[in-house]
Amino acid sequence: CSILYVAFCSQVEVSEGFEEQIEGRSTVVKQWVDKRQILKHQCVEGFLSHCGWNSALESICYRVLILAWPMIAEQALNARTVVEEFKVGRRVESTCNEMKPGFLKWEGLLKMVKELMEGVMGKQMRKRVKDVAELAKMTMVDSS
Q1: Pair 6, 50: CB distance under 8 Å
Q2: What domains can you pick out in the chain, each with its CATH number?
Q3: Which residues face 3 on adjacent strands?
Q4: What is the pLDDT of residues 97-121, one digit of tens each?
Q5: pLDDT tens-digit readout, 64-87
Q6: Is 49 helix (H, G, I), strand (E, B) or coil?
């Protein structure tokens, strides 16, 4: 099984009829959940993330690839680190919609998700995230 986890809290409203469209194939949870409980599930292979540092580190520690979509502040730097330095994610390019810079066409996002979840690059990153996860966990071990 392959699941892409998406979390944007209060920034997004689910459109009317969406839940009925995905019924039986997916789930929408509207209340707060501990994302670590979701990320550690064996079926979760990707996380569409704003790239806050805690979110990125938790995702890596649970060996979940990141589709990086930074919104504000240091998130762009974190996304760059995840994609270019750690090589365990792919950056969402907001230029997927030339008509509205900063917005995405769903087709462009779908292409990125498929590459992350099923493509050659995703397979390579999946191998890499195991090594990076071990290094990340070592940095969090209490040395006292």
Answers
A1: no
A2: 3-140 (3.40.50.2000)
A3: 44
A4: 566 656 677 788 888 889 989 999 9
A5: 999 998 888 899 999 999 999 999
A6: strand
pTM of the model: 0.81
What is d(CA 20, CA 45) in angstroms, rounded to the nearest whole number? Answer: 24
Sign (positive or negative) of CA dihedral 74, 80, 81, 87: positive
| Separation of alpha carbons 30 and 136, rounded Å | 30
CA neighbor of 60 nearest in space, from 138, 142, 143: 138
CA dist 22 and 9 (Å) reads: 19
Which amino acid does the sequence have at 47?
Answer: F
- Reported in sequence order, the residue ranges of 74-137 that DSSP labels E, i.e. its strands, are 89-91
For the chain, how big is the Rg over CA atoms in Å?
15
Residue 40 to residue 2: CA distance in whole angstroms: 13
**Contact predicate 137/61, CB 8 Å:** yes
